[in-house]
Design a protein that fits this description.
A 7-stranded mixed β-sheet has the order 1-2-3-4-5-6-7, with helices on both faces. The two termini are about 15 Å apart. Helix 7 runs parallel beside helix 8. The chain is globular and about 50 Å long. The chain has 10 helices and 7 strands. Strand 1, helix 1 and strand 2 form a beta-alpha-beta unit. The protein is of the alpha/beta class. Bound molecules: adenosine monophosphate, fe (iii) ion (2 copies) and zinc ion. Zinc ion binds next to loops.
Length: about 280
Amino acid sequence: MYDLHTHSRISDGTQPVTELVAEIAATGLTGFALTDHDTTAGWPEAANQAQKHGLDFLPGTEVSCSTQGASVHLLSYLHDPTHQALLTEIHRARESRVNRAQLMVERLAEDYPLTWQIVLEHVHEGATVGRPHIADALVTVGAVAHRSEAFETILTTRSTYYVPHYAVDPVKAVELVRAAGGVPIMAHPKASSRGKLVSDEIIYAMIDAGLAGFEVYHRDNPPEGRTWLLQVAAEHNLLVTGASDYHGAGKPNRLGENTTDPETVVRIREQATRPHPA
Ligand code: AMP
Ligand code: FE
Ligand code: FE
Ligand code: ZN
C-alpha cells in the first residue's frame, strides 16, 4: 500500500527527507508521495532515499489555493516542476506566506513575547513558511505546550491574530496542474475542522476543469463528507485516495493510517502526461 500525502521540514513537517523516508520504509509501505506545501525541493533527495530503501516514489506538491475566503489544498502528482505558469502561482503563494506570517507575528507580539527571529529559528532553510512555524515559536516562548494546542487556540482561522495569504484559485490550479502534465487530486475536501469549506459548486467546477480525484480517506474528512465524496467520485469516474498527511512530530497523524492501493497509483501514473519513472 501507498501513503500519498506526507510532509518533510522542507515545508511544515518536522523531519529531514532522509529520516522521513527511512520511517516510511520501517512502516512497511510499498511506496509514498512527498507532498510538501508549495515546493518540489524535496523530490531529488526523496527519490534517492526511496531507491535506497526499495520504495516506489511518487513526486508531489500540495498546492495552496483559495477562493471565497476558503482555503483549498490541491495535491499535484508527477507534474513538471519547471512549468512556468504553475511555478509563478506557487511562488506568489510562498512569498505571500512570508508576509502573512510576519503580519501574524506583529499581531501576536502585542500579547506574547514573540519575535520574527524566533519564528525563523523554526523554519528550515528554504522551507515553505506556515502557521506551524509560528506554533513552534509559541511553544518556545511558553505560550502553548505543543503545535496542536496552538492550532486549537491562538492560531485558528477565527482568531484575531489570523491573517490569510494569497493563493491561486482552485479551478485555475487544476488547469495549471494538468497543463504541467500532473494529476490533480483534492486534499481533505471536507475537512471542516480546519475552517471554512469550499462550496460544492466550486468542487464541481474543479471537476469540470480536470480534477482527477478526491483524497477521501483522510482523518479530517467526517463520515458524511466521505459518503458525498464517494458518490460524486463514482458519478464522475474520479480516483479515490487515502493518506495520512503525516507531519512528523508536529501532528498526531501517523504514517500509513490511511492508504491508497497500488491499482490507483497505476491509474495516477497513466494520467500523467510527461515522462516519469515506472
Ligand atoms: P497554513 O498553511 O500556514 O495556514 O497552516 C496550516 C497548515 O498547518 C496545514 O498544512 C496543516 O497540515 C499544518 N499543521 C501542522 N501541524 C498541525 C497541527 N498540529 N494542527 C493543525 N494543523 C497543523
Ligand atoms: Fe501542512
Ligand atoms: Fe493540506
Ligand atoms: Zn498536507
